[in-house]
Automatic annotation (TrEMBL):
Compositional bias per record (Basic and acidic residues), positions renumbered to this chain: 1-13
Lineage of source species: Eukaryota, Viridiplantae, Streptophyta, Embryophyta, Tracheophyta
Organism: Nymphaea colorata
Positions of the UniProt region annotated as Disordered: 1-26
Name of this protein: Uncharacterized protein
Length: 26
């Protein structure tokens, strides 16, 4: 867990085209 995990999830979301982590943008 941690920031690395979060960044990975964000990258995966971007590749999928689904903003699963909108809080990162805000």
């Amino acid at each position: 867990g941690g920031k690395g995990d979060f960044e990975m999830l964000e990258k995966v979301a971007l590749e999928s085209g689904e903003p699963s982590v909108p809080s990162a943008k805000q």
